[in-house]
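Section 5.1 Outputs to date
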Amino acid sequence: MLGTKAEEVFELGRLNGKSSIIVPDKAEMQRRNTERYHHDLQTARHQLKAISSFLKSNLAQDNEPKSEPVQAGTLEALHSTIQEKCSKLYLSTNYSEAAEKGLKSVDDRLRETTGFDKGNEAVGKAGLYFLGAAAPHVDKDFQQAIQLLLMSIHLFRDEKAHTSDAKIDDPVRAYEYLAMCSFAMHFLDNCEIRKREPRPKPPKATTVSPQKKLVTFSYDELSPIQIQ
C-alpha cells in the first residue's frame, strides 16, 4: 500500500512506538524488490556502456583507422556536435538537460545556416534544399520529410523549454531524443541554399464596362410610388 516508502514508514513507526503501520506482505515486497533490482540493473548497464563508448571516442587514435565499426545505440554513434554538447550531461544522468541541449543544438544549426529556426521557414523563405534523395521522382517527399523532422524538433524544444521539469528520467528515452537530433544534424551537413525565382504575377484581367445608356423621361410620366 505504501510502495517504495513502506520500509521507511515502518521504521519511523517502530521508533515512535506505533505498531499499526500496514506494510505489504512478504510476497509483494519480494516482487517489488525484484522489479527494482532489474530496473536498476538495466540503468547501470546502459550507463556503463555509454561511459565506455565516450572514453573510447576521446582516446588519441593517431589517425589510425578503427578496427571495429561504431556500435549503434552508443554516444560514439551520434553526430559529433551532439556528442560534444550533450555527452557530459547524459553521463551525469541529467537526462532532461541533455535532451533539451540536443534539441536546441539543431535549432541553432538551422538558424546559422538559414537565419530561421523553423523548418518550414528555412525551406520556404531561405530556400534550404537537402541533398541525397534516393531518386528524382521521390525528391519532393524527401524534402518534405526532413522539413517535418526539423519542425518536430523545434516543437519538442518549445515543449521542453516552457516547463521547469522536462520529465525525462529514463536513459533510453533521453538517448532517443539525442538520436533524433543526430539524425537531423546529418541532413544539415548535406544541404545547400537554392534561391527560388519569384513566380511571375498573372496579368490583370481587363474588364470592359458596358456602355451606359441615357434614359430620358418627363416628370409627368412618373407615378407617385416612383417619385418616392
